[in-house]
Design brief:
six-stranded parallel sheet, two-stranded antiparallel sheet, 10 strands, globular, hydrolase
């Protein structure tokens, strides 16, 4: 699902005050854990696992309401969280991620995820990614595709959302970042490029871009 950008990045002449990363599918490959956990839950409730397609990047309660409005949402959420927390097999950093995080040392960086705080912590630790500022499902009333997670992340970093670069992999996350007024770099790790058309730049993975901190601000260029 690689995307080959044509010409220079649309923000090649820009710098950013901060970078906000989505987690699952952008920083961390948790696909196996997610699929195993959700499929197991679906089968426990006689739900066709195929109904789960197309919901990546959405908060768990929204997915539950979409595919199984008849089940107890609180119990379902608790069960899925239990399954995902117990399964970190194959949870690793995606290509280019560790290099990107290292290159951003000294710049304001945050994670804004649809996962709970505990699940985000477990997956970041499993992938050996050290980012201290994490905005999770627990921190906002409205998750993606609403802008709230990115607005709160920018607030915590002390920067203007319009001066932030967001890295995302899901259409709902791209929509949320755009609604927050952020510039968006999307990776095709979990979605086709066409589904990420709202982003300012679409690349295959973070390995396709180079992050640099220049005079305290972040510059991004294509490799």
């Amino acid at each position: 699902m690689d995307s080959t950008p044509a010409g220079p990045a649309p923000f090649a002449d820009r710098t950013f005050a901060a970078v906000i990363f989505d987690n699952d599918g952008t920083l961390v490959d948790s696909t196996g854990s997610v699929e195993r956990s959700w499929v197991r839950w679906a089968l426990e409730h006689d739900i066709d696992p195929r109904a789960l397609a197309g919901h990546h990047g959405m908060p768990a309660p929204a997915i539950i309401a979409s595919v199984a409005p008849h089940v107890d949402p609180v119990a379902a959420f608790a069960r899925i969280e239990q399954l995902e927390l117990a399964d970190v097999e194959g949870v690793i950093a995606l290509g280019g991620v560790l290099e990107a995080i290292a290159a951003l040392d000294g710049a304001p960086v945050a994670v804004a995820t649809s996962a709970t705080r505990e699940l985000a912590r477990v997956r970041l630790a499993a992938a050996e990614i050290g980012i201290d500022e994490v905005v999770s499902f627990d921190d906002v009333e409205r998750g993606k595709p609403h802008p709230d997670p990115f607005l709160l992340a920018a607030q915590r970093l002390g920067v203007d959302p319009a001066d932030c670069l967001v890295c995302e992999d899901a259409p709902s996350g791209v929509a949320a970042a755009r609604a927050a007024g952020c510039t968006v770099l999307a990776v095709t790790t979990t979605s086709e490029a066409d589904a990420l058309a709202g982003a300012d730049l679409v690349v295959g993975s973070l390995a396709d871009v180079l992050f640099e901190v220049v005079d305290g601000r972040v510059r991004v260029s294509l490799r």
